[in-house]
Design a protein that fits this description.
This protein is α+β, with helices and mostly antiparallel strands and 1423 residues long. It contains 30 helices and 73 strands.
Length: 1423
């Protein structure tokens, strides 16, 4: 018999031998075997022994052997019964150990005749692998409070052999304690026990003990037991003042147990419940013990409670010990719930934080404010603010606790008495700890019954349509806490217009506004705005009333007096009898005026007698129409002509400069006639001489042409005059010549030089630095198809009446139009002169309130001493047939949301036949553009070649820097997207080269990390040593930037207004640094010599940066719902993407609130993930969320722009990181963008970069006939997606693709039947489809096909929902027919190899059916 395989394995492993003590023997003794298990009596005889005899006693002569091993053969009764086995090394295997085997065994090994005796002891392991402490209820560790007389015992019950137990005091150095050890037997088993004689509390209240089994043979226990013992006297020191800790409801509580970062081996936590201390948790030598599931004790000993509630309010105490030293910390946990309101709600304020109320009573008035839904209750107090501090009013408080929720309604009531003042400002404020719940006050401005508002008013006149601004500054100038504006029309009552309380404005009547200084502002006044205006201002101690009588004057229409008989505005002569009458009138004037007709020269008064004055004055719609008729008689001595004057005078303080001078001619004597003829002759001679001189000048100038590109000087020209060599357009009107001169002077002054860095001194010629970037044109009638223009000059060839050029900020809109203006003003040879004779460029930011294009030219372009006026300009523009008006910066136009002149101009309601070009940001594309409008888009830099060319021109010698930029950030799509903007690219390259800011970036995957060193060097500094970009200056500017962005993205201001907001040199530092750009806004028509200046951010992304700095700082301590409702709701994430990302990168607390807001609105999950990456970097959690997102179908639909853009950016990031993208579905979104092969187009001109980790792409485009170019573009894109497995084309019609030129020559075009009429079919389909020829030659896509032929990618096409599907054979370019039975299955390459090809005749029939279904290839409205 041979060794059983199982026994062989056990022999090798040693089976269940639990202890061996002897050494230097072949068979050690004693050996311990575990009861009830298989065991091996271990021996280690070498290979020289081949026979082993085993005996059950020490007498091997009389007792028979139980088993014998002889060279692999087993014999003996023990082996036959199955009880024993012998291993090759002589070890004895026992099938099941029992107490019967507890004795000596003998083995005799041959042939060397070696004999060894082994004492086998049966061992029994206890039930638990650790000793049992009496107070621990069978647990390995526990905490216990001893009662007087209690003792500590530790035992190991029912084991064998006995275990020597020891009590040890745990400390920096463990020490054994005196204890009493006993053993008690129960049959074969032994219970070992030790009792601690004395517990070593000494001066401590906690003792950490462990019960250790010490050295064991065999090893029955694997670990110690431990107990943290509290003395009978207790551990709580009631004199200890607890630290108050505030936690918001549903937040996670974490209370540390140690002041320092020290982990104590023994910790106990107690909570005071109803006056009694209750143990809630402990930590004993790493073991955590809790009494209830809601509590958790961390490894560091801290107490943690998840999502605490109001019931968790109590005092918590932690006691820690290291065995020698003890420490105690006490906490008074307060749970707070913010009230439903952001500020106290005053009962008459309708939920507003500031309001005003007119009080009718004359005795006392009760004020009530309250908050709801908070805990603890809020102590509200009524106060009267003063210039310094405030006066506390007697306040009656009440608190109502809701029985179910435990939340409070807090109320405060006070009573006020009318005083001598007209107004009283009272505020309801939260006190003391209430600021934790509510930090904002609410205020009410009480208007008591007026005794007498009347003060002597000041007359204030303003022109109709002009800005009304009434100052609220009196003689006494009290410190102003409040200001109230009221108005009375006629004899009616005073009405409240607006008020300002503690720096907050409230407008009750639109469109009035109040400035920061308290001035009342009306942007455009009207006759209806006349009346008595009062401003009452004060500080609850002094009060002042300022009064105005506002009157509106209206200039007449026309703006001159009309003398009957004079049909023109120029000087005229009337032929009258010696006794006749004269009529003078004025129309539409206000206020009323008096007309008078007199002689111009006092000496002529004796020659003319006036009599029979008749004045007629009538009023209509507030305007006056006045006619003055006077009779006259020439007295004796009159000389045939007299000069008269009609003049308007007013009894009001406003005076009109209205007078007309004219001659009256009448019959006279012959001598007088000769004198008149002589005078007339002199005039004729002068006119003839002037004509001759002017004609000679024109002839001398004609034919000369100013130098074009090659002769254009880069030096600053003399802007005081036009070069005499400049050729002017031939025109009969001299006014047109003047306008041409002024326009060209203006463009040379302000459009011929640009500065890439506004803070730098170098200025560049637009023609020398302009780089042609992609200009896309939307195809007529095909909203999602774009073609590329060859040059920017093509924009101005064959122009329609309206053209819109859109782009993102910084992509070169103003740069492009400056280049055009420069070309036109310098007579550039390449410019399309035949299309543009008059080019007018206006900046729309300067056109607020301007009512005509003629007024705009006067205001922003013409010189102060120009002889042109609005009427002359109107005549020029309406008579000139080739005029182009360019309007730059529609996004900054103040009146774009109103029915203004320029919105009507864009809509084609005025100057319909004049060509207008509008430049705007994509986010501000006008809603109302007429049919036939041409849409263009600037795409910025779409590749390294564009960027390199631009950098070479504006920053010489930066080639290596640009290469370094690409090598560093080339794998980061989020950063490279920003460098498509020319301005940001130039600044970044400059700073990288000059300051090496990349080396200072903490995380190159976050744009915030890039912008921090960027702003450190680019931003302003208070001193040379200051490199802070988040100081007070930045926060001031950030607050202003946030206000502008939240009002539709207006990031330009009046220079003086912004200078007042940014005090202490802050304004000048930002302008000097180039962050802000200050520029002349133009001159005012009413004040020609007083030009205004405006200031704006050099780029919107910098406005977003500073706004983010301000908001990140503010959001840290503001409740989420306030942020969501009052701040973020004003900022569209798509238009302000960088702002959101900057906030998340600057402050993690603020980031959490922003991300929460994004996930709850705007379809913002994808953008929230981008912001999460900006907050924490590309962590494993972010990568996992990205994997989860792209493990499912990603659908790009024509819905949320933010979702599309964010999804594309995430896909680009995932592709660069190698994260698989399972499937992308473009549903009615695909758009051909010529000039962007290798990138998929999407609606609104967005493109998708190649995705190397994409597996399947589905283009679902209902009812669309795809062109050859589109199909080719898709194939090229496929070649750049290296892991693409499937391309599915659904619900659209594709060309009959063929890659082989020979098919045309052979005439079969892929026709399997070889009919030879393929070419004719091709022409027929081309004519129907209006698309380019549909044959794709091999050399068009040769490189792309080589890449995708071997990739195994399958191209699948399903033009009809219920028809066959077709598979493209990429080797020959023909469609194969996939049978219906496998249509709904995913075909493999093997499935496709044996399929038949689609006939060209069938393709034609399908095309005709498709066209009939969808209507001439156009979409069915879903596109």
């Amino acid at each position: 018999m041979y060794l059983h395989p199982l026994v062989y394995i056990l022999c090798l492993s040693g089976s269940a031998t639990v202890g061996i003590t002897s050494a230097q023997r072949n068979c050690p003794s004693p050996q311990y075997l575990e009861l009830g298990r298989a065991g091996t009596v271990e021996c280690s005889f070498n290979e020289s022994y081949s026979r082993f005899l085993w005996y059950e006693s020490l007498d091997s002569t009389t007792n028979p052997r139980i088993v014998e091993y002889n060279d692999g053969t087993l014999l003996g009764s023990g082996y036959d019964s199955g009880a024993y086995d012998v291993c090759r090394n002589g070890s004895l295997f026992i099938r099941e150990v029992s107490f019967d085997y507890e004795h000596y065994f003998r083995v005799v090994a041959l042939p060397k005749l070696t004999q060894e005796d082994i004492n086998v002891v049966v061992a029994v392991s206890p039930l638990n692998p650790f000793p049992l402490i009496g107070l621990c209820d069978g647990n390995k560790s526990c905490y216990a409070k001893l009662n007087p007389g209690d003792s500590l015992t530790c035992s190991v019950p029912d084991a064998k052999p006995a275990v020597n137990l020891t009590w040890i005091a745990v400390g920096p150095e463990d020490s054994a304690l005196e204890s009493e050890f006993t053993e008690s037997k129960n049959g074969h088993l032994v219970t070992s026990q030790t009792r601690l004689v004395t517990i070593p509390f000494e001066d401590n209240d906690l003792v950490l003990l462990k019960c250790s089994p010490g050295e064991q043979t065999p090893r029955l226990l694997t670990t110690n037991a431990a107990i943290l013992v509290e003395s009978p006297n207790g551990i709580i020191d009631d004199s200890l003042s607890p630290e108050i800790k505030h936690f918001e409801r549903y937040s996670n509580l974490l209370l540390p147990c140690m002041n320092k970062d020290v982990i104590q081996p023994g910790v106990v936590w107690k909570r005071k419940v109803a006056g009694e201390w209750r143990t809630i948790g402990a930590k004993v030598l790493g073991d955590i013990i809790v009494t209830e599931e809601e509590y958790t004790v961390t490894e560091g000993g801290s107490l943690k409670i998840d999502e605490i509630g109001i019931t968790d309010e109590d005092v918590y105490v932690c006691m820690g010990t290291d065995g020698v030293n003890e420490s105690m910390l006490s906490y008074d946990v307060k749970v707070y719930v913010e009230p439903n309101e952001a500020y106290p709600n005053i009962d008459v304020c309708d939920g507003e934080d500031v309001c005003t109320s007119e009080i009718e009573v004359t005795t006392t008035y009760q004020l009530i404010c309250q908050t709801t839904g908070s805990t603890p209750s809020i102590n509200l107090t009524w106060v009267v603010p003063k210039s310094e501090g405030y006066l506390t009013l007697d306040t009656e408080r009440s608190f109502l606790k809701q029985p179910m929720s435990g939340l409070y309604t807090s109320q405060a009531i006070t009573t006020v008495n009318p005083e001598t003042r007209s107004l009283l400002l009272a505020s309801c404020i939260p006190e003391n700890d209430s600021t934790l719940l509510m930090s904002s006050n609410s205020s009410i401005l009480l208007q008591f019954p007026l005794n007498n508002f009347e003060t002597k008013p000041s007359d204030y006149w303003t022109e109709n349509g002009e800005k009304l601004q009434l100052m609220c500054n009196g003689e006494r100038h009290p410190s102003t806490l409040y200001g109230l504006w009221k108005r009375r029309r006629g004899n009616g009552p005073f009405e409240t217009i607006a008020f300002r309380v503690l720096g907050k404005n409230s407008i009750l009547m639109s469109p009035f506004d109040i400035s920061e200084t308290g001035a009342l502002i009306l942007q455009s006044s009207d006759v209806d705005d006349e009346g008595r205006y009062l401003c009452i201002r004060g500080d609850n101690q002094e009060e002042e009333v300022i009064s105005y009588d506002v009157n509106v004057y209206v200039n007449p229409t026309p703006n001159n007096l009309i003398v009957t008989g004079c049909e023109q505005q120029s000087y005229c002569t009337l032929d009258k009898e010696a006794e006749d009458q004269i009529e003078c009138s004025v129309s539409g004037i206000r206020p009323n005026v008096q007309l008078s007709i007199t002689t111009l020269d006092v000496s002529d008064e004796a020659l003319v007698s006036f009599h029979g004055h008749d004045s007629d004055s009538r009023e209509a719609d507030g305007l006056y129409y006045i006619t003055e008729t006077v009779k006259f008689r020439i007295l004796e001595g009159g000389h045939g002509k007299v000069t008269l004057r009609c003049k308007a005078t007013s009894s009001h303080s406003v005076q009109f400069s209205l007078q007309e001078t004219f001659d009256v001619r009448f019959s006279v004597t012959s001598n007088s006639v000769d004198g008149s003829l002589l005078w007339l002759l002199v005039i004729i001679v002068i006119v003839v001489l002037f004509s001759v001189v002017f004609g000679a000048y024109v002839l001398n100038s004609k034919g000369k042409n100013r130098c074009s590109k090659t002769n254009r000087s880069l030096d600053v020209p003399d802007y005081g005059r036009i070069d005499e060599e400049t050729e002017l357009l031939p025109c009969q009107d001299a006014d047109l010549q003047i306008l041409l001169r002024e326009l060209k002077v203006w463009y040379r002054m302000f459009r011929s030089r640009i500065s890439i860095f506004p803070s730098a001194d170098n200025h560049l010629d637009p023609a020398s630095v302009y780089v042609e970037t992609a200009i896309l044109q939307r195809e007529d009638g095909r909203r999602n198809r774009w073609s590329k223009l060859e040059s920017y000059l093509k924009v101005f060839e064959d122009m329609p009446e309206r053209t819109v050029i859109e782009a993102d900020p910084g992509c070169g809109k103003s740069f492009l139009i400056s280049r055009v203006a420069n070309d036109w003003s310098t007579d550039c040879e390449s410019f399309p002169w035949n299309d543009i004779k008059l080019f007018i460029l206006l900046e729309m930011s300067k056109l607020g309130g301007v009512e005509s294009i003629y007024e705009a030219i006067c205001k922003t372009i013409l010189s102060n001493d120009s002889s042109l006026n609005a009427k002359k300009l109107e005549a020029i523009l309406k008579s000139c047939d080739k005029v182009v008006i360019a309007l730059d910066g529609y996004d900054d136009y103040p009146d774009k949301n109103e029915d203004s002149y320029f919105t009507r101009l864009l809509a084609g309601d005025v100057l319909r036949e004049t060509k207008v070009v509008l430049l705007t940001r994509t986010s501000s594309y006008p809603d109302k553009m007429p049919a036939g409008t041409r849409s263009l888009r600037l795409m910025g830099f779409t590749g390294l070649n564009h960027q390199q060319s631009y950098i070479n021109k504006v920053l010489t010698g930066q080639e290596r820097t640009l290469e370094r930029l690409d090598s560093i950030f080339g794998s980061n799509g989020a950063v490279m997207e920003m460098f498509e903007v020319p301005l940001l690219l130039a600044i970044m390259v400059f700073l990288i080269d000059r300051y090496d800011i990349v080396s200072k970036c903490e995380d190159l995957g976050k744009i915030t990390s890039l912008f921090e060193p960027f702003m450190t060097f680019y931003g302003p500094r208070v001193s040379e040593d200051d490199d802070s970009w988040r100081g007070m200056d930045s926060l001031k500017l950030g607050k202003v930037a946030f206000a502008g962005l939240s009002r539709g993205g207006r990031i330009s201001w009046n220079s003086n207004d912004l200078r007042r907001k940014l005090k202490g040199g802050c304004f000048e530092r930002f302008v000097s640094a180039g962050i802000l750009v200050e520029e002349q806004q133009g001159r005012s028509i009413s004040s020609p010599r007083k030009g205004k200046r405006k200031v704006k951010f050099i780029h919107k992304v910098l406005a977003e940066w500073y706004a983010a700095c301000y908001l990140a700082d503010a959001f840290e301590n503001i409740a989420y719902y306030i942020i969501a409702e009052q701040d973020l709701s004003k900022l569209n994430p798509f238009d302000n993407q960088y702002l959101y990302r900057f906030i998340c990168g600057l402050n993690k607390t603020a980031a959490d609130k922003v991300i929460r807001y994004l996930r709850s609105s705007y379809n913002g999950d994808e953008f929230a993930l981008i912001c999460t990456i900006e907050k924490s970097g590309f962590t494993e959690g972010a990568q996992q969320e990205m994997r989860d997102l792209f493990s499912k179908t990603v659908a790009l639909k024509p819905t949320s722009r933010l979702q599309r853009h964010s999804t594309i950016l995430l896909m680009d990031m995932a592709s660069r990181k190698g994260i698989p993208i399972t499937e992308v579905l473009m549903e009615r979104c695909y758009s051909l963008v010529q000039g962007h092969s290798g990138r998929l187009g999407i609606i609104e001109g967005i493109t998708i970069p190649p995705l190397t980790s994409l597996k399947e792409l589905i283009l679902f485009h209902v009812g669309t006939v795809m062109s050859t170019q589109e199909t080719q573009n898709i194939l090229i894109y496929m070649s750049k997606c290296s892991r693409l497995e499937y391309l599915s084309l659904a619900k659209s019609f594709h060309p009959f693709i063929d890659f082989d030129k020979s098919n045309i020559a052979n005439g079969n075009m892929g026709d399997d039947e070889g009919t030879g009429d393929g070419e004719q079919v091709a022409i027929e389909i081309e004519n129907d489809n209006k698309d380019p020829p549909y044959v794709i030659y091999r050399d068009d896509v040769e490189d792309s096909l080589d890449d995708i032929k071997g990739s195994g990618c399958i191209v699948q096409w399903s033009p009809f929902a219920d028809r066959s599907t077709f598979i493209l054979d990429l080797h020959v370019g023909k469609w194969k027919v996939l049978p219906r039975q496998v249509k709904d299955m995913r075909p493999t390459r093997e499935d496709c190899e044996e399929l038949g090809y689609l006939s060209v005749h069938v393709h034609k029939q399908m095309y005709m059916e498709f066209m009939k279904m969808h209507g001439n290839g156009k979409t069915n409205g879903n596109d």
